[in-house]
Amino acid sequence: MVTDRTADVIVVGNGAIGLSVAIEAARRAPGLRITVVGPPARNDAASSVAGAMLGCFGEVTTAVGHHPATTAEFDVMREALDLWPAWLDELTELAGPAADALRASLTTGTFVVLGADAGPVATENFKAMHAAAMAHGEPHELLEDPSRIEGLRPAPEARAVQALHLRRETAVDARSLLTALETAAKNLNVRVVPGVVRRVVAEGARVRGVDLTDGSRHTAETVVLAAGSGSTELATGLLPPGAVPPLLFSSGLALMTDRAPVGGERPVLRTPPAPVGTPGTHVVPFPGAGGAYIGATDTVTCRPHAGPVLGTGQALMGLACAQLDQSLTSSVMRSWLYGIRSIALDRMPLVGGCGLTGLLFATGAYRSGLHASPVIARHLAGLLTDSAPAPDERFAWFAPERAPLATTTVEDSVEEAVLHAVDSTRTLRRAPLSPDEEADLAGRVRQRVLWLYDQLDEPYALSPEMIHAYGQASPQDVERLRDHLRAARLHHGLPATTADAAIRSTLP
What we know:
Elements: E1 3-4, E2 9-12, H1 16-28, E3 34-38, E4 53-54, H2 68-95, H3 100-104, E5 110-115, H4 120-135, E6 140-143, E7 160-166, E8 170-171, H5 174-187, E9 191-194, E10 197-203, E11 206-212, E12 217-219, E13 222-225, H6 231-235, E14 247-258, E15 268-270, E16 282-285, E17 291-295, E18 299-301, H7 310-323, E19 332-344, E20 350-353, E21 359-363, H8 369-385, H9 393-396, H10 410-429, H11 435-456, H12 464-471, H13 475-491, H14 500-504
Parallel strand pairs: 1-12, 2-3, 2-13, 3-9, 5-15, 13-21
Antiparallel strand pairs: 4-8, 5-7, 6-7, 10-11, 11-12, 14-17, 14-18, 14-19, 15-16, 16-17, 20-21
Helix pairs in contact: 1-5, 1-8, 2-5, 2-8, 10-11, 10-12
């Protein structure tokens, strides 16, 4: 085995978060020897296929503010919204001409469009984001007549009834962003190693480096796991069972198209966050002859898909054309993009250190990772370079070694899963359900969810995303979840109770 002993810090992962952490740490401590390891092709990586919407309020849902962890996550997103203009300036200075394409790709605000066909989930999320914008003094306009928005041409049945104009929420081309980040890192003497990490090496109670799939070993006293959904697998065996919430896989498909030009302004058009199983559609314009990014699907599973699924791609294209711009039906498809986001069991990021000295996590940020990357980078860089980093109560909620955060109750999670399933079915059918059809579907979904909780026999309330994932999972995956919840209860000293009473209280 060839051993490389040149690094103080190894960052596993060359996406937006990993490179940002390396840049921020190198800026603060120029003498720190930092290595970033990741495959140049970034196959299936989330950052390289993202729509790269730099938004906070456009991602608000009704869950924000219902638990201190969701409030902390929102605060991080708000800080990132404030930081991005300065972060782009810093990248421009550090990367030089390599940042020109990044600058050129910057869009001019966001319109969140509520259509006449929106169901209760999207409608309530739209109300929540408007309320959040008002509560926090975010510059915005609520448009009661959105028909004059440039480039918005929905189908009659999905006509826009309201829109929220978020002037500060923009987007960039993710591919150009990664080029600028990697160039900036190299200009700061960060070593970028093309390769794939096979395992994290530890001796006793501390990290010693990483082994790559090419047989080489890179040693370091600190390893940062920013490898998306592969991060917890790399930590397997290094921490006790149940110590860290598992990461699942959120598959995302998007399309690059040649769209008819829509004038001088280039705003993002998007719908509110949608029910589970239904794409929340957005169209992100890029420079050139009508270039547009159409995204994105969001399918959470226990195991990664080998590629995009036909049905979700069909739904994405149909909803984007109907809800945002009918003329997209005649646009020319340049390519499709496919990536896998990481999402923790409790939907909260894994950021910070753990019980193994020298091992840090920076992953699990789900759909907000790219946007939040400047804030996550600042926090991690503080842990890497400061002898006594200032405490940040927000990130205490995201400590990787934690019991899964419970942001709702079992009873409420059952009803929320039913709401999402009925709403998603209605949206994908593009037609209302009859009262009998809706009641029958709700009853069947409720019984499936109660069956899942009965198999788990643990009082942990799952989000709709997790119920959808485990409701379609293999018996082995459900058993693994049950084993994790039991191990987490023991490791973190939680009460030894079962979910039976809570489940039975929801039975009709």
